[in-house]
Amino acid sequence: MKTVKLANGVEVPILGFGTFQITDPQEAEKAVKDAIKAGYRHIDTAQSYMNEEAVGKGIAHSDVPREELFVTTKVWVDNVNYDGVGMSTLF
């Protein structure tokens, strides 16, 4: 899969698998596992999708090591403040 290099040197796959509107936990986990099996190495989720845990399980239960995957997520605006994002808001 082709990648693009960020300013910090990190390589990001240019094609990602989005998990928007996959709200059923079992479906989300299976979709992520299937996407990884199909060759996706960039997985996208968000707190507002309410499927981050299932996406994480799909990643954990895939046959691809985590360090070979690029995962993006978006944080609820209410969980961000002037000081940044506190870890307690993510869990």
Automatic annotation (TrEMBL):
Cited PANTHER family: 2,5-DIKETO-D-GLUCONIC ACID REDUCTASE, NADP-DEPENDENT OXIDOREDUCTASE DOMAIN-CONTAINING PROTEIN
Record's keyword terms, sorted: NADP, Oxidoreductase
Recorded family membership: Belongs to the aldo/keto reductase family.
One GO molecular-function entry: oxidoreductase activity, acting on the CH-OH group of donors, NAD or NADP as acceptor
Name of this protein: Aldo/keto reductase family protein
Annotated InterPro entries: AKR, Aldo/ket_reductase_CS, NAD(P)_OxRdtase_dom_sf, NADP_OxRdtase_dom
Keyword Signal tagged: no
NADP-dependent oxidoreductase domain span: 15-79
SUPFAM superfamilies reported in the protein's UniProt record: NAD(P)-linked oxidoreductase (SSF51430)
Gene3D superfamilies named among the record's database cross-references: NADP-dependent oxidoreductase domain
